[in-house]
Amino acid sequence: MIIRWESEHDYVLVHVHQDMFGDWIFVRAWGQIGTAYGGIQHALAEDYTQAMTWVSDVDHIQGLRGFTRVLETSDDTPEARDAVRQLSLLDSY
C-alpha cells in the first residue's frame, strides 16, 4: 500500500509492505515537491494492524496540517512503482 499526501509545496508518502521474511515494513518519506530536500524513515511493525495504526496516525496528522491525500494504491500499479522509485532516489541522498 502506498499513500501520498500533498500541500502546496510539500509531500508525505507512506509505503507499507511485507519483506521477504514476512515482516511488515512501514516507510515514511517527506520533503518539498520537485526537490531532493526531505527525509525517509523505515520502521518494523509488530504486525499488519500496527502498520495500519501508524498509517491512520499519519493520515490524521497530515489532515490537521492541511495536506490532501492525492494517491492511495496497491504495490502492483504503475503509480506505486513510480512512487517506490522516488523513495529509492531519496534513500540515496
List the defining traits of the structure above:
33% helix, alpha+beta, single chain
Would you mind describing this structure in some detail?
By secondary structure, the protein is α+β, with helices and mostly antiparallel strands. It has 2 helices and 5 strands; from the N terminus they run ββββαβα. It has helices at 48-64, 78-91, and strands at residues 2-6, 10-18, 24-32, 38-45, 68-73. Strands 4-3-2-1-5 form a 5-stranded antiparallel beta sheet, sandwiched between helices. Strand 3 and strand 4 form a beta hairpin. The longest helix is centred in the middle third of the chain and has 17 residues, at 48-64. The protein is globular and about 35 Å long. It starts with a strand and ends with a helix.
What's the mean pLDDT score? 89
Numbering strands along the chain, what is their spatial order in the largest sheet? Answer: 4-3-2-1-5
**Helix/strand order, N-terminal first:** EEEEHEH
The proportion of residues forming helix, as a percent range, comes to 25-40%
- Cα separation of the termini: 24 Å
Tally of separate helices: 2
Task: Please describe the biggest sheet, giving its number of strands, its sense, and whether it closes into a barrel.
Answer: 5 strands, antiparallel
Label the overall shape: globular
Secondary-structure-based class equals: alpha+beta
Poorly predicted ranges = none
Give the percentage of residues in beta strands.
35-45%
Number of DSSP E strands: 5
Radius of gyration: 13 Å
